[in-house]
Amino acid sequence: MTDFTQRVFSGVQPSGDLTLGNYLGAIKNWVSLQDAYETIFCVVDLHAITTWQEPDVLRNATREVAAGMIASGIDPKKSVIFNQSQVSAHAELAWIFNCVARMGWLNRMTQFKEKAGKNKERASVGLYVYPDLMAADILTYHATHVPVGADQKQHLELTRDIAQKFNSDYGVDFFPEVEPLIFGPATRVMSLRDGNIKMSKSDPSENSRINLTDDCDLISKKIQKARTDSEPLPGTFSELGDRAEAKNLINIFAALSERDAEAVCLEYEGKGFAEFKRDLADLSVSVLGPITKEMAHLMNDKTYLDSILSEGAKNADNLASPILKQVQEIVGFLRP
Ligand code: TRP
Predict the structure, then answer these.
(1) Protein residue whose Cα sits closest to atom 13 of ligand 1
(2) Ligand 1 centroid to 82 CA: how many Å?
């Protein structure tokens, strides 16, 4: 096996506002990887348009995600930060992967089924081949480690299948085996209105999520309004049973305070939600406040943000282009 450097790649979609879910589930965990790996973080605008995006909204959201990453501690001097559409290797390799992946594999993808819903016939073709593009994102850098939420695990398995099929079809040892890096329980932050569905930028209810563009007052209000039940809190996490909303709030508390969910339960044993939510609101404001403030500051300096993204794109392209060239060679594309 070729000796690959330890390289991390991950992405966030610029579709709608960045939420607490993106922060706790993804970005916050990426910060700590910067010193252990070579890191590449991408704003995946090509993925975003698999569902309709207003052009101006997309442009703004792309900058906002970049600002959110930087405000959260992703350092452009340590990590490559860029938006996907600036590096053409992603789309070019995705096409080749469309020809490697099998219909049967894509038919099994649960995210497509969820996103397309009942109206599969009207979903974009892009939404269907979304996982091939994700595989291209990762493999065009020969990335070895990919931090993702549990909901993306299936896409990573597909990435491994594509890499393997490519290697065996062409009789090469070219693409590495990709390992997922899955983080703690709050990697899946649930809606504040319904503890059984994921916190999402596309949920029609604003109160279901905390956006990284919310100010401190609003963050606090949304926590206070979060749905709960009327039971007091038990001393252990397992005793929460199927109290989905309570579990979600405990997990958020644990992730924001970098403690164990069990330790949080122990502290609030026997207490009601009024007190717990007051503390959670304060905690949320103290952790997120500085980030949202810095984000707003960065959003006022678009020239700076854009320069980070174009510099990042140049660096990304330098990594991706030679790999894509080798793929074209392997596949048999004539390059006179
Ligand atoms: N599909 C991922 C999500 O929705 C985003 C993504 C796109 C990604 N390309 C990626 C994540 C490559 C990791 C690696 O969360």
Answers:
(1) 10
(2) 14
Going from N- to C-terminal start, the domains of the chain cover 7-182+303-331, 206-297
Residue 137: CB within 6 Å of ligand 1?
A: yes
Burial 108-134 (b: 16+ CB within 10 A, else e): ebeebeebbeeeeeebeeebbbbbbbb
Atom of ligand 1 lying closest to residue 149 CA: 15
In CATH, 7-182+303-331 is 3.40.50.620: yes
Given the candidates 3.40.1190.10, 3.40.50.1000, 3.30.1490.20, 1.10.240.10, the CATH classification of the domain at 206-297 is: 1.10.240.10
Give the span between the Cα atoms of 82 and 161, in whole angstroms: 27
CB-CB contact of 153 with 182 (8 Å): yes
Task: Write the pLDDT tens digit of every residue in 295-309.
Answer: 999 999 999 999 999
- Please list, in sequence order, all residues whose beta carbon lies within 8 angstroms of the beta carbon of residue 209, skipping any fewer than 6 positions away: 17, 19, 20, 21, 191, 192, 199, 200, 201, 203, 222
Ligand 1 pocket, 44 CB below 6 A?
A: yes
Are 276 and 300 within 8 A, CB to CB?
no
User: Does the C-beta of 10 come closer than 6 Å to ligand 1?
Assistant: yes
Q: Whose CA is nearest to atom 9 of ligand 1?
A: 134
- The 10s digit of each residue's pLDDT in 31-90 is 999 999 999 999 999 999 999 999 999 999 999 999 999 999 999 999 999 999 999 999
